Each structure stands twice: as structure tokens, then as C-alpha cells.
Amino acid sequence: MTRKLISTASVLATLLSFAGPILAQDTTPIKIGVLEDQSGDFALATIGKVHGIQLATKEINDAGGIAGRPIELVVYDTQSDNTRYQEFMRRVLQRDKVDVVFAGFSSASREAYRPIVNQFNGLAFYNNQYEGGVCDANMIVTGAVPEQQFSTLLPYMMEKYGKNVYTIAADYNFGQISAEWVRNIVKENGGTMAGEEFIPLGVSQFSQTIQNIQKAKPDFVVTLLVGTAQSSYYEQAGAANVDLPMASSVNVGQGYEHKRFTPPSLKDMYATVNYIEEVDTPQSKDFVKRFHAMFPDEPYINQEAENSYAAVYLYKEMVEKAKGSTKIDDVRATLADGQLCYDAPEGKMCIDPKSQHTSHTIYLAHVNADHSIDFPKKWDDIKPYWLGDVGCDLTKNDPSAQYTPSSLPPKL
Amino acid sequence: MEFLYSLFSFLYQFGDAFAFLVLSACGLAVIFGMMGVINLAHGEFILCGAYVSTSATHMGVPLPIAIALGSLAAGVAGMIVEVAIIRPLYKRPLDTIVATWGISMIVTQGTLIVLGTTMAGSGTPFSSFTVGDYSYSVYRVVLMAMAVLTLVALWLMFTKTRFGILARATIQVPHVAEALGVNTNLIYSLTFGLGAALAGLAGGLYAPTMTLVPTMGASFMVEAFVTVVVGGADIFLGTAPAAVVLGFIKAGLTSWQGQLAGQIGMLLAVIIVIRILPRGISGKILKERA
Known about the structure:
The complex is a heterodimer.
Chain A: H1 2-23, E1 30-36, H2 43-62, E2 71-77, H3 82-95, E3 100-103, H4 107-119, E4 124-126, E5 134-135, E6 139-141, H5 146-161, E7 164-170, H6 173-188, E8 192-199, H7 207-216, E9 220-224, H8 232-239, E10 246-248, H9 257-260, E11 269-273, H10 282-294, H11 303-321, H12 328-333, E12 341-344, E13 347-350, E14 360-367, E15 373-382, H13 386-390, E16 401-402
Parallel strand pairs in A: 1-2, 1-3, 3-4, 4-6, 7-8, 7-9, 9-10, 10-11
Antiparallel strand pairs in A: 5-16, 11-14, 12-13, 14-15
Helix pairs in contact in A: 2-11, 3-4, 5-6
Chain B: H1 2-35, H2 42-58, H3 63-86, H4 93-115, E1 128-131, E2 134-137, H5 138-160, H6 162-172, H7 174-179, H8 184-206, H9 218-231, H10 235-257, H11 259-276, H12 280-289
Helix pairs in contact in B: 1-5, 1-8, 1-9, 1-10, 2-3, 2-8, 2-9, 3-8, 5-6, 6-8, 9-10, 9-11, 9-12, 10-11, 10-12
């Protein structure tokens, strides 16, 4: 009799223990892996990204989490080193078993880790402006891309200053592909390239480059310089009194060169950014206030910090729309109608289902002689249309490839 | 006239490359050439010079004194490192590579943690001047002059002063020098400190023209090592001629085909020199003289 009672009890207990997780709400944390360069050549521009993610996480957790589940961050310092990205990407996906990864500053690092995300069918957010063209179902890009930054910036510059353009760009995939974009857009608008020079990463001496530019006599210079060593260009060009207007998709918005160098070395620099801390809207001011409340010593809130902050909220929207599921297929399915949006500090951001890139408000930031910023122009709701136009449609198939204007997807 | 403008432009570029090579390499050359220590923390002594001199400028110290302070601070730091870490390793030259590499990483990361990602620059002093189509920075001409001045000062120091003679004696035959009453430990410390101070000088001089970040030392390292490898162990017969050759190659190729070509040309030159002159330019000269 007693034996029977015990066995009944144990059967009941077993049943209950199975029922438990179904009845009670799931409160296990949602894990977000964060791989960003917190040391090395890129640290200056990327520490703010980690802080942006931490701020969003705190706000969301204080307000009850994502679908009632708190966020837990798993943060690794990738040291501006591509092999670290591969190592830590394996670790967060295999050992830490995170639900989503926010990773990467340089395009070289993104291309280093992307195959690993594909291999484990993970989901990664790349919260950085870049040269565009990644058509990969495992990736969501919240940064701005060339059709958002260059097709706004270059026509403006060519109309204002003239049609003869000189490009100096960092010599790796980002700089090379961005320069290709510049070349194409300048040509489409009836301009000419006065010259192009690619600078190896880590180079800090620009005397000769400055002279090459002066020799070519361009109307303005497009600077696509990456990393702290290369930003020495501005100081040296200023000292040699080059005095040409400049245009950029990366500088100012990423490395806040206007705060770091003595005026007027960045005078008449124009950059298209989707956010910088000077953006003068109530949402932006409130964001800056909350950011500084949590990180009082933050030197500057750049556009990638805002992208990273917004990415956490976009992910929250996605998971909640997927009824709390963090499975990649469920989460991606929420993008299908193109209505997955978030009111970010810059304005409204929506994820495009075809390319899984994000629409942005683009601000034209102009650096004055005293290095203050004004915004001569603003473009609302600029869509990342290029990938969709050339035939990338992640709702139908997933090539997991990167396309450029000279390397288009195969015609179906 | 056009030709003269181009000639001046090339001379300026050559001088600029030469100054950068000499100033970044001479500290390394003193420590490697005289003491046989391969100092991978060379960039961090440059960093020290740059940060100290820039902080001093921010506090209102005039630039020349600020640069001297930066150099002095790096020199003192160098002597401390020599006494604490390098001294037990003189007989284990390969271990000094690992030890100095460790110092380099600790200093870079420590600077990042303590002082943050960047320090505001002090701005390049002086204005610019124009020759023909091009405008040039006056300060870079000052840098060229400083490079030549540094070489002259070093030559005078090693040939005309008592410290120079004792240092050379200590390096050549340490036990005989010791038997003759030379405090060889002190000489080692001072020589290492001198090398570090020269690195600090390079940092202080280039600080106004560059981004001040904890990793800035790294951007000097390639040029410094390349110059020392091509030049060989002797500063005057090695570093100076190596800087002339490499500066010529780098300026020529960069003006012709851009920065990438300049870097490739410089590294190719090193490969060729190592193949033909395994002991560098100075090794060749000294061997022929002997």
C-alpha cells in the first residue's frame, strides 16, 4: 500500500515537474552576446557601442525585460583583432549559447565572423555603418549603408563645391568598396575623379598624400579614413594649409575627429550621419541625458553607439512580436511585413525584410571653423534600397554573400 | 621653374620621411646596437613622451620645454625598466623580447584603462608656407632639423664626452671596463635610459601632429625596426645611412604610386638588404674597415 502511494506520488511529481515550465511564465534570461573592440586601434569608436547596449539593457530590464524575461549580456573584448572575433563568436554561440550576438566594427572583422554565424545558424546584429551589400539571413544590419550616406552627400557636395573629386580611403574591404561607390555616384552626377589613394591601416604620416592631393587640385576630398592612426591626416593637412572642403561617411560620426583635433583642422568637413550627439531634437537630447547619467565620462556619443542602443530595442520588438520566441526563424518572420520599427533617438528606424538592413534619418553634419556642428540638411526615412533593387531577397533565398556595384548577384 | 618646385617638393618629402625614420629609430638603435636588447616596448616609450609633453602643453608649458619633459620622463621610465626587468635578462637576449613585449601590452592597456581612449591634441605649431603649387607645414621642417640635430648631438656625446667613452668601453669589453673601475651597472642603466629618452623625444616631437591614443606607439614600430635592421648595430654608420636610403625609396614610391607602394617598397628594401648585407649597412662598412 505504502509502495503504491509513493509510486503514485512520484508519478504525480514527475507530471508536475513537466507541467511546471508550461504553466509558469518563462523568466530565464535572454542572452545577448556582445563582441566589440574595447582595446586596440578601434577602441575609441567602439567602447561607446558597448555602453549603448548596456544602457538599453538597463532600461529594458528596469521596465520588465523582453516579454517578461530579463536581458543578460555576455561581453567579450575583441581587441581590434579579427581572429579574436572568430574565437569569441564560436564561444558565445557554442558555449554561452546566446540568443543573439551584437558584433563588429570593421568590415574585415564582420567578414571574419560571418561564416561562423552561418555555420551555427545564429543571429547577429552588425550595428555599424559600412560599405553595404551583405545579403545574409543570419545578419541584421542597423548601421547606414552607401545608398543612404553617399547618394545624399555627394550630389550636395558636387553642387556646392564642384565636380572634381579626390578620394583617400583606408585600404581594406570597407575603403575599397566605399571608394567604388564614390566613383560610381560621382560619374552618375557628371563629375570626374581627380585621384584616389588607398592608405594601409595603421599609417600615420601623410605628407606625401597631402601633396598628391594638392597636385591633383580637386574641388573637395572624400576622406574614408579608419582607425586612430589614420585620423592624424586631419592635423597634418590642417598644418600644411590644404584648405579643401571634405566629405565623409565615417569620419566625425564615428571617431569624433572634430572634438579631438584643434580647430580649424576639420573646417568644412561634411559628413552624412544617422546620429551624432549634436543632433538637436528632444528625443536626441533626452537620449544624451540618459547616456551621461549612466556613463558620465563618455567622451562622445557617436552614431554607432546609437545604432547599438537602438538594436537592442529592435530585437526586443522582434522577440515580443514573435510571442517571446528567440528562434531565428520565428524572429525573422516578424520582419516580413516591413513594419518592424522603433522610434530611435535619430527618428524612426525600420528593418527592410528583403535585405535585413535598416532605414534611417540621415543628417548632413557640417563642421565649422571653430569645430562646432551645424546641420544644413536632413533627409527623412532613407531606405536601404540597393540590395533589394539588385536582387537580394532574403524572404525567398539566402545567398549569405556580400555584393558590390561591380559584383552583383547572379540574375535568376 | 616648374622643375624647381617639383624638386623642392621631393626634397621636402624626402626630408620628412628621413626625419620620421631617424627620430623613431635612434632610440631603438641605441638600445639594440649598444646593448643587444631587442626592445619591443620602444613604441610605449614614444607614447610616454607624447602623453607627458602634451599634458605639459595643456598646463601651459611652452612646447620646447614640454617636449624636453616628455623625453626626460621616458628616460626615467627607461632606467626604471632597465633596473627592474631588463638587468637580470642580459644573458638571455630572447627573453628580453618577451619581457619588453609584455611591458608594451601592459602599458598600452593600462593607459587605455587609466587615461581613456584618447587625449586631446595640442595642435601643430607654426603656420604653413607656399612654394609653387604646394603648401607645406613649417613644423615639419623643424622636425627635419631636429632629426639632424639629434644625430649630431649623439655623435658628440659618444665621441667627446666621458659618458660616451665609458659607455663604449662597457659595451665592448664589460669585465675589463669593470676592472678599471667603471660602474658598468650604472652605464647600462644610463644607456638604456638614453635610448628610452630618444624614443620619448620622438613622441614629444610628433605628438602635435598626430592622434594621441594608447596604441600610437605601434605606428612608429615598423619604420623604427626596418631602419635598425637595414642600418645594423651602429647608429652613425647604420641608422643615418639607412634612413637616407629608406627615406628616398619611401618618398619616391609614395609620390609615384601612393602610400601602399611606399610601404611595400620599404619592406622590399629590407628583404633585399638582409639578403645581401646580413649585418646591415654598418656591418658592411665596419667589416671593410677592419
